[in-house]
């Protein structure tokens, strides 16, 4: 058939727009979005005709074309950043947005989003109208530091710290601490970006105070420690404590800084968790500047916190990079609300979701597994052996991968032993209205229950996929 006749078999944009199937779509999404989708659908049909010299099967009747246009509009309108059930076994999962926020933080952010706020506005005229003042005062109280500064994340904190304190000068760091975090953040690269000259001292496994001392010269601007959060050197090792390093720095009229990575404002070992260095300890040991993340163990929004000597913090606040790296009102509102929870440490474990999930007791998760097993077994169907069993969760986000938390999981083993069968189940779970993210390991799919708090929402979500699904 001549091409011209094939094109003529396609309806016009107007005709397709008025198809009864698209009436509701028009109501919901408006004329502009629908018309664009109709045009794109017809364009695709024309392209097919041009390349194949035939009318595509899906363009043969108008009902089908209308239905394709309708799908196109809804796909385009679908929100891409949406809630999931994180059953991956990693509590602070960077790809899943790290720390879930406390209710108090959620409320503070919604209020700040809707209305004007006192971001840099001083109600009592006491001259504290700086955007970091509220956070700074809280951090002073919680850590004993003289002042604090808040930026976009901890990578930004390290960058502005180095740029302010030691641009054009030498920064002395132990060879054993030149960390890479999640690929894009490498200490040597950040140093270069900040205009500092990195001076590596010691050996990978052992660095002594004398190594730092011998590296100090007229060009030295800073002695620095970096917490080796995501790896651990064992065996014949030695490193210099922050207290020793700060003392050496001060003897030479230099500042000392430490990048703690996660940092924990409470003693995690008191909760039976792996100990993590605390910013307040570093301040007490005389370190001039300490940086850490807002959305790692602190359990707040993405942010980088720098605490320390007021004279240095004031300089950081005045650095031109601060304007580029500063936080917006939503982040600051969430961070303030989160830090306020730390003023009531005895309630923290209930109010801070990150901590609450990290400390969940194994029997509690096992009980939950037993409750969920029938429905999940039904969901998976006959091709799988579904079981509940002990597992090990990870803290995540640069915490030590070797520190594991005993938990409980539901596991699925494919009866045909095939990876593709397992992949298909993982896909079905990810395709639920609220995607369920598990972990493939050891030939099984694991749903680690540590982060499953809203059990009824989880059940309702599963039932939506499988209306017949009825446990027991
Ligand atoms: C995680 C981490 C960073 C980066 O922190 P972000 O908040 O992710 O930017 C920097 N240094 C160390 C030691 C870390 O563990």
Automatic annotation (TrEMBL):
Key word Cytoplasm present: yes
Entry's Gene Ontology molecular function annotations: L-seryl-tRNA(Sec) selenium transferase activity
BP GO terms, sorted: conversion of seryl-tRNAsec to selenocys-tRNAsec; selenocysteine incorporation
Family annotation (Gene3D superfamilies): 3.90.1150.180, Type I PLP-dependent aspartate aminotransferase-like (Major domain)
InterPro entries per record: PyrdxlP-dep_Trfase (IPR015424), PyrdxlP-dep_Trfase_major (IPR015421), SelA-like (IPR018319), SelA_trans (IPR004534), SelA_trans_N_dom (IPR025862)
Keyword field: Cytoplasm, Protein biosynthesis, Pyridoxal phosphate, Selenium, Transferase
Keyword field contains Metal-binding: no
Enzyme nomenclature, EC number: 2.9.1.1
Pathway assigned to this chain's UniProt record: Aminoacyl-tRNA biosynthesis; selenocysteinyl-tRNA(Sec) biosynthesis; selenocysteinyl-tRNA(Sec) from L-seryl-tRNA(Sec) (bacterial route): step 1/1
Cofactor: pyridoxal 5'-phosphate
GO cellular component, one term: cytoplasm
Compartments in which it is found: Cytoplasm
Physiological role: Converts seryl-tRNA(Sec) to selenocysteinyl-tRNA(Sec) required for selenoprotein biosynthesis.
NCBIfam families: selA (TIGR00474)
Database matches in PANTHER family: L-SERYL-TRNA(SEC) SELENIUM TRANSFERASE
Family per record: Belongs to the SelA family.
The name this protein goes by in its record: L-seryl-tRNA(Sec) selenium transferase
Lineage start: Bacteria, Pseudomonadati, Pseudomonadota, Betaproteobacteria, Neisseriales
Gene name tied to this protein: selA
């Amino acid at each position: 058939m001549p091409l011209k006749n094939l094109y003529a078999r396609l309806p016009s944009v107007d005709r397709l727009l008025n198809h009864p199937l698209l009436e509701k779509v028009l109501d919901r999404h408006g004329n502009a979005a629908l018309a664009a989708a109709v045009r794109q659908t017809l364009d695709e049909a024309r392209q097919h005709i041009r390349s194949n010299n035939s009318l595509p099967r899906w363009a043969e009747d108008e009902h089908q074309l209308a239905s394709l246009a309708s799908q196109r509009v809804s796909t385009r309108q679908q929100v891409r950043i949406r809630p999931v059930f994180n059953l991956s076994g990693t509590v602070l999962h960077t790809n899943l947005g790290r720390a879930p926020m406390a209710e108090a933080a959620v409320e503070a952010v919604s209020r700040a989003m809707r209305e004007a706020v006192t971001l840099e506005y001083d109600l009592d005229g006491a001259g504290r109208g700086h955007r970091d003042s509220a956070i700074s005062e809280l951090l002073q109280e919680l850590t004993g530091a003289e002042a604090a500064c808040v930026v976009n994340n901890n990578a930004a904190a390290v960058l502005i710290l180095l740029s302010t304190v030691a641009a054009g000068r030498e920064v002395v760091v132990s060879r054993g601490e030149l960390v890479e975090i999640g690929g894009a953040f490498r200490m040597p690269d950040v140093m270069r970006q900040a205009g500092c000259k990195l001076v590596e001292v010691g050996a990978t496994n052992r660095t002594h105070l004398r190594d730092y001392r011998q590296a100090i010269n007229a060009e030295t601007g800073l002695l620095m420690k970096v917490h080796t959060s995501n790896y651990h050197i064992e065996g014949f090792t030695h490193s210099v404590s922050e207290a020793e390093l700060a003392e050496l720095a001060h003897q030479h009229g230099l500042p000392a800084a430490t990048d703690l990575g996660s940092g924990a404002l409470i003693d995690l070992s008191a909760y039976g968790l792996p100990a993590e260095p605390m910013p307040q300890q570093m301040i007490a040991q005389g370190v001039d500047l300490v940086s850490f993340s807002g959305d790692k163990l602190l359990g707040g929004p993405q942010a980088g916190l720098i605490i320390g000597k007021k004279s240095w913090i004031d300089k950081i606040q005045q650095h031109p990079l601060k304007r580029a790296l500063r936080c917006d009102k939503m982040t600051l509102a969430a961070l303030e609300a989160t830090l306020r929870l730390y003023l009531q440490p005895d309630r923290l474990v209930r109010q801070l979701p990150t901590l609450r999930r990290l400390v969940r007791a194994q029997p509690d998760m096992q009980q939950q597994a037993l409750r969920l097993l029938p429905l999940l077994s039904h969901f998976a169907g006959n091709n799988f052996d579904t079981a509940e069993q002990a597992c090990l969760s990870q803290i995540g986000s640069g915490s030590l991968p070797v520190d594991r938390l005993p938990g409980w999981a539901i596991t699925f083993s494919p009866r045909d032993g095939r990876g593709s069968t397992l992949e298909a189940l993982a896909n079905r779970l990810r395709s639920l209205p609220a995607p369920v993210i598990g972990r493939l390991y050891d030939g099984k799919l694991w749903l680690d229950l540590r982060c499953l708090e809203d059990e009824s929402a989880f059940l309702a979500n599963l039932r939506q996929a499988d209306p017949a699904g009825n446990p027991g």
